[in-house]
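Hi team,

As requested, here is the filled-out complex form for the zinc ion run. I kept the field names the same as last time so the parser does not choke. Let me know if anything looks off before we queue the next batch.

— J.
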Amino acid sequence: MNKDCLFCKIGTGAIPSEKIYESDTIFAINDINPQAPTHILIIPKEHYSSLLDIEEADHELMGSIISVANNLAKERELDLSGYRLVVNCGENAGQSVMHIHYHILGGRSLKWPPG
Ligand code: 5GP
Ligand code: ZN
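And here is what came back:
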């Protein structure tokens, strides 16, 4: 828990937010500024500033996040149309909240390469 971190505060409930998924270690919320019809953030409760903080001991947690992403996508039938799972890491990638989070984007055709 980082006392100045937005996603730590949402995770603990210090800042109220509707969680669309929650376990002991992970939660998911709808993005406040959606970039696609489905735009979900999957977030570990533990504070990691970015993908660069992930070590071997965290692999199981990261694997669980991918399962959560698949389950949320399937609930929304995005397994039929496809979806994108994105982690922005650092300045050039446009990371704006320094607590690791995975974006699920789906419900429309997404361009590649990204801007
Ligand atoms: P990043 O740019 O770091 O990859 O993604 C941060 C995301 O968090 C952005 O898509 C932004 O819209 C979202 N976001 C920022 N503040 C809040 C908030 O208070 N609530 C929710 N649900 N999403 C937020
Ligand atoms: Zn945090």
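Two things worth flagging: Strands lie at 19-22, 26-30, 38-44, 83-86, 102-106. The CA atoms of residues 30 and 95 lie 17 Å apart.

Thanks,
J.
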